[in-house]
Amino acid sequence: MIASFRRLAPLSLLVLLAVLAVACAKEKRPAATPLSPDATGTLTVLDWAGYEDTSMFVTFHRAYPKVTVSVAFGESDADIFGKMKAGTDACVFHPYSGWQHFYVRDGLVAELDTTRLSHWSEIPARFKALGQVDGKQYFIPWDWGYTSILYRTDKIPGGVDSWTALFDPKYKGHISMWDDGPGAVAIATYVKNWDETKLSDAQLAEIERMWTSQRPLNRFYWTGEPELVQGMASGEIWLAYAWQGAYNTLLGQHVPVAYAQPKEGRNSWVGLYGISSKCQTPDLAYGFLDEKLTAAQGVSLISSFAYGHVNPAAYQGVTDSNIVRALSLNDPTVLERTKFTPLVTEADRDHFGQLWARVKAAQ
Amino acid sequence: MPRQSRGRLWALIAAPSLWLVLFLVLPLLLLAAYSFRAGVGGALFRDWTPTLEQYRILFATPAFLRLLVMSAGIALVVAVLATLLAYPVAYYLVFRIRERAGVYIVLLMIPFWISYLLRVMAWKVILGEGGAVNSLLLSLGLIHEPISALFYSRLAVIVTLVYVWTPFVALPIIATLYRIDRALLEAASSLGATPRQRFWRVTLPLSLPGVIAGAVMVFIPTVGEYVTPSLVGGSSGAMYGNIIFDFFGRSANWPLGAALAVVMLLLTLALVGATSRISRVERFIG
């Protein structure tokens, strides 16, 4: 088998080079002309379920009504990475912070020409930096949000102010952690005040011990937000690792919940859009990315989904008080107290994944 | 075999064989090849030297091996329970309902008209904290707090899987029971066998191939099951399949996931091989 692949290798290399040559030839087009309103064609976007909703690209849709946006789905960052690697016709794809350098390493993402993005100057530098690898801009940042502890105020009237609550035997059988290794490692490092990018073997062993002994307290590891929302609404779950989307949904259902401000800090994540290095329609892709950055698109994203947007001009357009609370848009200092998911090496990511698998496999 | 009919035979088996090679053998070989990679990085088929690192990690992690044994144990329990439940159903349909059994077989299959997800989630309504069982026990005053261990536990995984598989196991048993020559049963009776003796000495041994086929049919997919435990197993109900899924779908560590899958496949093949050998011996004795 492997031998026959070896024989095929020169051929596939040639095909790859030809594709790259075509792609490069297109990218070298000199003038960064803005996309014409009459532009036609189909743009394929590899995205998460929910992001196919037109409100996720409403201004692009209005500006270029003749362009069809076709959304292909990935169900996790690992899945999106796998699909990009295996080959897809998607021009634009949507990974989250912590994964960008893998795309650069494997040559799956094209470096961005930010002069082609007319709204680029509206984005704060702190967000821009999250789309860079080795000083080069490969991604635009787009949606962002928090991770914190969501809790039922009727079940825990005293409130929660620390990540240690997830490990508190008082709440046995009523805790729900997200089913994710890197997420679990991050929380443990906040509790221990360790640097999650420089963990020793002894520290990793301690983190594994923490989560293994937490497991009997945990009701279930949630994988999708609806599962968590249902558990909290029914009163089975009192506190959980959660994103602000779940908080907003539960507030909308009049469930008595609060979103903690842990003394160790909240965690935060940022969604990024990149253009595939094999993209055949970079004009459409740049037009799509540029419209993603507008304040009007930001208002649509925030109002419909309670996700943050990278264009601060959008925040003034948000009137829903639940969302303002969920995103802490009324607290100008909250982003400073938030820890963004750092880049982890592949070795670290594998270690975290294995650690979490051992926690789940422990008898 | 005349040349012409041999040609026809080849023509007939060409399509299914091609299908099997393309969609079973090749993917399995790819999976096996992946298990010898060091990492997921780099080109898919170039730039890599085979390594046993993933197998080293797997065999150096007792938790994974214990979970594999545990999953095989769960699959065995589920296969045995589902078969024990299915046998009386099959027996009743074949020997009591007889001609109209077809209608009842359709009734048996009706649950499969409903999505698997819905059927599994129905158990949440039955076993959950606010579910039917807990509500009944609470209202009868037998318990004062809902029993949380009914759901999100290994027990819930086993109950759900037995429920899902029982109708499946009934089918091969029904098929073998139908094939039993009634003259043999009459002969047993006229030679003085009691109904009980007739069942234990004639019916059961003759239906064993169907029983074993049904049990194996349940056992094989259940060892690698991951949907049911992820829905009803909770934090402590994970099976080996969940770990494989996590390595593929969540941590992009395909090589280790592939190594775990290969080991599971080999264990399952070995167990099924052993079973089929035993079943042949059984048939000989029977």
Which features does this protein show?
heterodimer; A: 363 residues; alpha/beta; ten-stranded mixed β-sheet; two-stranded antiparallel ribbon; 39% helix; 17% strand; disordered N terminus; B: 286 residues; mainly alpha; 76% helix; globular
Task: Describe the protein.
The complex is a heterodimer of chains A (363) and B (286). Chain A has helices at 2-27, 58-63, 77-86, 100-105, 125-129, 181-192, 201-214, 225-234, 244-252, 282-292, 295-305, 321-326, 346-361, and strands at 41-48, 67-74, 92-93, 132-133, 136-137, 139-152, 175-176, 239-243, 257-259, 266-275, 308-309, 338-340. In chain A, helix 2 (58-63) links the parallel strand 1 (41-48) and strand 2 (67-74). Chain A is built from 13 helices and 12 strands. In chain A, the strands form 2 sheets. In chain A, strands 1, 2, 3, 6, 7, 8, 9, 10, 11 and 12 form a 10-stranded mixed β-sheet that branches. Chain A has 363 residues and is of the alpha/beta class. Chain B has 286 residues and is an all-alpha fold. In chain B, 76% of the residues lie in helices and 0% in strands. Chain B is built from 12 helices and no strands. Chain B is globular, with a radius of gyration of 24 Å. The two termini of chain B are 34 Å apart. Chains A and B meet through helix 1, helix 3 and helix 13 of A and helix 3 and helix 11 of B.
Give the overall average pLDDT of chain B: 89
Spans of chain B with pLDDT under 50 lasting ≥5 residues? Answer: none
Q: What portion of residues of chain B belong to β-strands?
A: under 5%
Figure out the total of helices of chain B.
12
Helix content of chain A: 25-40%
Structural class of chain B, by secondary structure, is mainly alpha
What proportion of the residues of chain B is helical, as a percent range?
over 70%
Please state the CA-atom Rg of chain A, rounded to the nearest Å.
Answer: 22 Å
Low-confidence stretches of chain A: 1-31
- Outline the biggest β-sheet of chain A: 10 strands, mixed
Mean pLDDT of chain A: 87
Largest interface: A-B, 47 and 40 residues
Terminal Cα separation of chain A, in Å?
Answer: 38 Å
Query: What order do the SSEs of chain B take from the amino end to the carboxyl end, as H and E?
Result: HHHHHHHHHHHH
- First-last Cα distance of chain B: 34 Å
Q: How many beta-strand segments of chain B?
A: 0
State Rg of chain B: 24 Å
